[in-house]
Design goal:
Length: about 260
């Protein structure tokens, strides 16, 4: 177990990188013995700093759920991070990536909005469906404070699961009225289709992802809370973006989301 002073130092370093839009060398290069548990403690310190700076936690995210993303990043298990009110942008409006992010990439996914708490372990897919108020189409714009995205699982976990910004779409749908496994996604950038995917891309189903998250967080004594936004993981490969790009996505039976990057 990494000592508390080292955890604080690394968490502060990542917080400073976030605020100053700078990159740091991979933690796994400098601390070869860092464990996944150490990384989560670093992440919690980073999130504590963000809360002390006035941000409010509004949800949680699962990252690295699809084979396409796992292969792209060479990270082969999911992770989780915290969403804050500073991360959310309005559907169809400008997203300030040039002033907020460092090396952003776009993901398309399904967001779950909860009406009941979910507290693991022992949470089932049926529990997730009962606890979900509605699902929405979502863009998550991931970002990494780790130089050149040279991450291992411990790096991305410590960096709050590479959280950046996100956009919720234009419709809210009862998850019992759509097949979340077979629903298809089409993602366009600047008017051209760049990727397609389906719900099954995320651990077989986005519901599996939320169940995994509830049970994993339950081991840390952390609930998924009523009213929270839960991002269930990308259904398509990561798409590099730059200011001036426009993106839109449609998910069959769920709806659309759009964003302009500035």
């Amino acid at each position: 177990m990494m000592d508390k002073a080292k955890i604080k130092t690394l968490g502060d370093e990542l917080y400073d990188a976030l605020r100053n839009r700078t990159m740091v060398e991979p933690l796994t290069d400098r601390e070869p013995d860092i464990t996944i548990e150490d990384a989560y403690h670093i992440s919690l310190h980073l999130v504590d700093r963000r809360q002390a700076d006035g941000e409010t936690i509004i949800g949680k995210k699962i990252g690295v759920t699809s084979a396409a993303v796992q292969n792209m990043l060479n990270v082969h298990q999911p992770d989780f991070g915290y969403l804050t009110d500073r991360m959310i942008c309005a559907n169809g409006e400008d997203m300030p990536i040039s002033s907020e992010l460092i090396q952003p990439k776009a993901e398309g996914e399904i967001a779950f909005i909860l009406k009941k708490d979910l507290i693991g372990p022992g949470v089932t897919n049926a529990d997730v469906l009962r606890a979900t108020d509605f699902v929405m189409p979502c863009y998550e714009i991931v970002d990494s404070r780790i130089k050149d995205w040279k991450i291992k699982i411990q790096d991305t976990i410590a960096d709050n699961a590479s959280c950046g910004l996100f956009v919720l779409g234009d419709q809210a749908v009862d998850p019992r009225k759509v097949d979340l496994t077979t629903c298809g996604m089409v993602l366009e950038k600047n008017g051209e289709v760049v990727s397609t995917g389906a719900g099954a891309a995320a651990l077989g189903s986005p519901i599996n992802c939320v169940t995994w998250l509830a049970n994993t967080l339950g081991e840390f004594g952390i609930p998924l809370k009523a009213g929270e936004v839960i991002l269930s993981g990308s259904l398509v490969p990561l798409e590099p973006i730059k200011p001036g790009d426009n993106m839109s996505l449609i998910i069959g039976g769920i709806g659309t989301a759009a964003v302009r990057f500035v």
